[in-house]
Amino acid sequence: MNNRTTVERTSDRELVATRTLDGPARLVFEAWTKPELIMRWWAPKSFGISFLSCETDVRTGGSYRFVFGHAASEQPMAFFGRYIEVTPPSRIVWTNEEDEDGAVTTVTFEEKDGKTRVVVHDLYPSKEALDGAIASESTGAWPEQFEALDDLLTTLGASV
Amino acid sequence: MVQYITTRLDASFAALSDATRRGVLERLGRSDASITELADKFHMTLTGMKKHVGVLEQAGLVATEKVGRVRTCRLGLRRLEEEAAWIEGHRQLWDARFDALDKVVEELKRKEKVDE
């Protein structure tokens, strides 16, 4: 079984993550949709994120809201959107509305011989939106933030 | 993916097909420069140089940043490295998620067996 996780930028606007899990699609679907199960895997501890709350209304047109706490931030982070399509146990499509340039995510579960191949596909509204997501979160953005902080400290120091 | 890389390579080769643009890359390899400096060096109008820089920027070979009224150009390869680093970070996130999801699915499977 190939259980490697792959992530690729497949076009200007698309990002795809894949993995094969050892279980039938209906159980993967269940783990992907029930809040008490989502809370056990969606926010990995190793990333310093923990769930504060998790609400899902998994049906076409239903909405979801995940709220996380992060060790490095006092402000909780909310992620929310709507389910555009729900087809148990093979397909879920949802919006990511916490960001106006957020992607539309499609996850598919393909079962074969008791294993399930999971494909998570993010489609961003434009090349700029995905480039922006990469730039804002990449470590490369930090020097600029430090520069801004430096400038601020200099200004504050000068005014004392 | 292959299609995407091919498109990027096409853009890169198109950008490199022009002697002035190759010169600009060589110049930026020594140090960052403003559009005005580049236009002077290559005896061109600002508008002409902006077009060349635009083509290089589209291909990801040059990155520009506007500070005040000056637009500074630098080699853009760093952006590709940043993208690769970001994608690897994203992969690690999904890897950690899928590892945890695997355990949840494993547990659901065991429960089903017990219930049978």
Describe the model.
The complex is a heterodimer of chains A (160) and B (116). With 160 residues, chain A is an alpha+beta fold. Chain A folds into two domains: 6-125, 2-Layer Sandwich (Alpha-D-Glucose-1,6-Bisphosphate, Chain A, domain 4), CATH 3.30.530; 126-160. Chain A has helices at 25-33, 35-38, 127-137, 142-159, and strands at 6-9, 14-21, 49-56, 63-70, 73-87, 91-95, 104-112, 115-123. Chain A has an eight-stranded antiparallel beta sheet with strand order 1-2-8-7-6-5-4-3. Residues 138-150 of chain A have low confidence and may be disordered. Chain B has 116 residues and is α+β, with helices and mostly antiparallel strands. Chain B has two domains: 2-75, Orthogonal Bundle (Arc Repressor Mutant, subunit A); 77-116. Helices cover 74% and strands 12% of the residues of chain B. Chain B contains five helices and three strands; from the N terminus they run ααβααββα. A three-stranded antiparallel beta sheet of chain B has the order 1-3-2. In chain B, a hairpin with a 2-residue loop joins strand 2 and strand 3. The two termini of chain B are 44 Å apart.
Provide keyphrases for this structure.
heterodimer; A: 160 residues; alpha+beta; Alpha-D-Glucose-1,6-Bisphosphate, Chain A, domain 4; eight-stranded antiparallel beta sheet; 4 helices; 8 strands; 26% helix; globular; B: 116 residues; Arc Repressor Mutant, subunit A; three-stranded antiparallel beta sheet; 5 helices
Number of β-strand runs of chain A: 8
How many extended strands of chain B? Answer: 3
Euclidean distance between termini CA atoms of chain B: 44 Å
| Biggest pleated-sheet summary of chain A | 8 strands, antiparallel
Would you kindly provide a brief summary of this structure?
The complex is a heterodimer of chains A (160) and B (116). Chain A is of the alpha+beta class and 160 residues long. Chain A folds into 2 domains: 6-125, 2-Layer Sandwich (Alpha-D-Glucose-1,6-Bisphosphate, Chain A, domain 4); 126-160.
